[in-house]
Amino acid sequence: MAMITHFMGRIRGMAVQDSNAKHGVRLLIEDYPYAVDGLEVWEAVQTWVGDYVTIYYKADIHVKHDVELQRWWQEVIEKGHGDKKDESWWPSMHSIDSLASVLTTIIWLASAHHAAVNFGQYPFAGHFPYRPTMGRRLVPSPGTPEYDSFFENPESFFLSSISSPFQAILGLAIIELLSTHASNEEYLGQRSSPYWTSNAEVMHAFERFQDRLVAVERNINERNSNPKLFNRYGDVQVPYTLMYPSSKEGITNMGIPNSTSI
């Protein structure tokens, strides 16, 4: 649970561990759309991973004695993160719970967390004067000619300091591409082939995962229509949908692909 407390804003002072709270995490700001929706997505993924792992590992000793699994985890730490390999915070890989926790974290980072920071870029960064990609001039100091020029014509000074038209067009094309879902995108709870597994237990667990994601979408819709939740409803009534699992193709400001999609 320490992992999800971290991702939901513990470092920013937004959440604390609380065994009495739902999900084991108490949000210090209750109307925090990313965290509220994200906790539900996390729980759905965590339950699915737990169901899946326990089909193949019946006891902790089976995880500890899985040579291939242990070597993979060793490579993740020592080769994938060589500069951090001696840190004390690395979780062990000696139990079913530790395996499920690690896999849940990896899936979360590659799916929901990435979707939340990637697919919402275009509405905020698509207008370059609002969010330019560069600043080519320093803020002028009082008493300099540039300072006087800034006050004489702030708009002209601002436009001369940000991306050129060509750079803006190029940046906009990149942001549009990053924010667009492909027509063949696979989202959480989806598989392109019905034959991805022949294990009946796995399929039943996956169907339960799909049902949980449907419930997540229903809950998000309900919260987005609640006028008491100002941070997701507000005066302009712009819903928060970045944690909405499914989506259509194109720029939709929603949708969680199965893995990092760029």
Automatic annotation (TrEMBL):
Keywords linked to the UniProt accession: Dioxygenase, Metal-binding, Oxidoreductase
Coiled coil: none
Gene Ontology biological process terms in this record: lipid oxidation
UniProt-recorded name of the protein: Lipoxygenase domain-containing protein
Chain ranges of the Lipoxygenase domain: 1-262
GO molecular function (one): oxidoreductase activity, acting on single donors with incorporation of molecular oxygen, incorporation of two atoms of oxygen
Domain of life, per lineage: Eukaryota
